[in-house]
Amino acid sequence: MNFEMSSEQEMLRKTVRQFVDEEIIPYIAKWDAAGGFDAKIWSRLAELGLMGVCVPEQYGGSGMDYNALAIVCEELERGDTAFRTAVSVHTGLNSMTLMQWGTEDQKQRYLVPQAKGVRIGAFGLTEPGAGSDVAAMSTTAVRDGDHYVLNGQKTWISLCDIADHFIVFAYTDKAKKHHGISAFIVERSMAGFTSKAIKGKYGIRAGNTGELFFEDLRVPIENLLGEEGEGFKIAMSALDNGRFTVAAGAVGLIQACIEASVKYCHERETFGKPIGEHQLVGRMLANMEAGYQMSRLLVYRVGELKNKGVRNTRETSLAKWQACDFANKAADDAVQIHGAYGYSDEYPVARYLRNSKAPVIYEGTREIHTIMQADYVLGKRQDKPLTKMLPKWPFEE
Questions:
Q1: What is the Cα–Cα distance from 68 to 116, expressed in whole angstroms?
Q2: Whole-model pTM above 0.90?
Q3: Closest of 328, 300, 325, 329 to residue 315, by C-alpha
Q4: Full DSSP string of 148-185
Q5: Per-residue pLDDT tens digits for 4-24
Q6: Is the pLDDT of residue 331 over 80?
Q7: Which residues are catalytic?
Q8: In this structure, what DSSP letter does residue 58 have?
């Protein structure tokens, strides 16, 4: 049991933190207000090797371990949730799913350019009538010769207007329910594909989120990911990776809340002393620190299980649930510490609070994860072996 980061991981953290401090934090208030960030950020992420940090070198990635991805997400969300979300979706939900389930041809065509940052990947599962209840989806894929014809709609899709490739889920046999869902790699350039951004979001305003529409969209049979009927398993395994990155990002948000609150506690005085010396303010800071340390341990435990090639659905669920709840509470307390100023855009904590709510909802609400953990404890839920797992780290050529 080793709680120390490697020198390579520490260097990665230093690099990402410097990038965030110099190229995100000075501009994020403006980007958040405008509803989008400078597209040059994508090229900078690629230059730093952050678009494929845990993808094997043979597929264009940096070849680092899975906890390196956690470090990247933690540091990016310290700047803003929008940037962690971009990497979560591109790497966690799309590229890692290709690593686990893709054919060699699919990896060469899609994973390699994504790992290099030449192309951007996204993930299409949620629908207007199908969130936590995946089986309620209505998108269909009908086989027609050497193509599948997709019709339907997805919503709340991150990078909807930006991504080049999407992993999309649709029914190939509705009568089989969960066992009738299949996964496909869809390209933006395919005829019948359109997207539309959602405006007026409460938080993560700098990020692009919206809807995807498929109208008689013809997907080549070689773009079927896995086998017909494996879509639900693929989606759930993808969510294990996505939830891991969301939990890691929540750790970074807690850190941002601590940093902002400590700074303000040293600046602001009430009743003749710095506000940090008031016991109830100190209690809020102590709770932030406890949440930060506990969440970080849960996240890096999951990363180590991934490194070993061990299924980690239970551990990932717990990390995602707890880290996101801790982050939401830390942001709420950070606003309280700042008082009336915390309720304005003069300080970053209002943005932290707005951003902290979405991760409590997406990729499994806190209620879903609560039920999952109770079922594990009661012995009602057991994770069966998957036919394909993420490659162990260190990666083999």
A1: 16
A2: yes
A3: 300
A4: EEEEEEEEEEETTTT-SEEEEEEES-GGGGGGGEEEEE
A5: 999 999 999 999 999 999 999
A6: yes
A7: 363
A8: G
